[in-house]
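Table S5 (text form). Sequence records supplied for joint modeling of the two-component complex.
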Amino acid sequence: MKIAVLGTGMVGRALAGRLADLGHEVAVGTRDVADTLSSEEYASWQEGHPTVVLRPFREVGEFGDVVLNAVAGIHALAALEAVGAAALSGKVLLDLAIPLDLSAGLPPTLTTANTDSLGEQIQAAFPDALVVKSLHTVYYEVMIDPARVPGEHSIFVAGNDEAAKTMVSGILEQFGWPAGSIIDLGDITAARATEMYSRLFFALYGRLGSFDFNINVVRAGA
Amino acid sequence: MKIAVLGTGMVGRALAGRLADLGHEVAVGTRDVADTLSSEEYASWQEGHPTVVLRPFREVGEFGDVVLNAVAGIHALAALEAVGAAALSGKVLLDLAIPLDLSAGLPPTLTTANTDSLGEQIQAAFPDALVVKSLHTVYYEVMIDPARVPGEHSIFVAGNDEAAKTMVSGILEQFGWPAGSIIDLGDITAARATEMYSRLFFALYGRLGSFDFNINVVRAGA
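The corresponding structure-token record, covering 444 residues in total, follows.
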């Protein structure tokens, strides 16, 4: 599959590297290619991942069969505007950004919550994109390697398009998430649920002192 | 122990009944005793729990060594005002209310979230009370009988006073929560985490069609 990953930070790089290792054609999108390549951190990562290409947002949007939004929540809508509605039309857009306001440190607050969510804002801004919210309830290392956390634990998908959620679930399974661990929460309004969970995620991080954790949904009669 | 339970709804009744069965002296608090007793639902429950007394808010506040707030979130501060700051001073106040706005049905929104929480509002309004936020992350039937959900699953406590959290953890253990399942999230600001989790709770309820579920925090190296 041709996969566009928006975002050159540690989350974007980890996803891009893992997807390339899985055999996908991966292009990482950035606002300014030269600026990104001038970063020692990115350049050294690039050396280790020679098959991954770095391109401007608009080009990777046209390249990808699927687009992953791994840009920080506060910049997500601007990055997607740079990709452009035309490139996103009819395409699966896996959004794993959280609208974190980290200006006061940890634990963060959210720039939108309760009666709206970043997932919904993205779907509203790009009505022809097939937005699926997923993966953002775990740290990026766990996203791409769920076995870092032992035993059974859960990952969520939410979105308006069933086929898009099926495609995203396939990517999750390639990352190592068992099919039975993937919980479909319904349409994109459920992005509120998982984005608001981030406050508990950061409280647990504060308590456990490690990002290698997750929650498992346990139910009677399962 | 003498325990005051604020609230005559299904949550308050379930907690009061369970605490009485455990051998505690229990008084249920209400705004208007005659009005509550005129309810067929309450009266029939009362018949099955003859040791539980029903008293006005102010009286139960004076009676209880511990006060449980099981009033609906939107009425919680008013009920506690009726109990009075004097009766709450120096006392453990176990708050299990969620600030739900159910006016638009399920899933509910919250009347406060993100940069504040009901738990914090209660602590601010009654600075001499030892507020502990707990139990509200599961349905009331699971609160008092965690074995309804099989296997390991987690329950949270948050509050500013360590001794108060220890006392509340003792009540949780009497309900059947193993000590190892109780996670201390820190001070009362962590009430934001567990109150905001309620959106995911209701999304999961919508998906599972049952309230007999909970989350288990799974971590590496545990």
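Note: The first strand of chain A starts at residue 2 and ends at 6.
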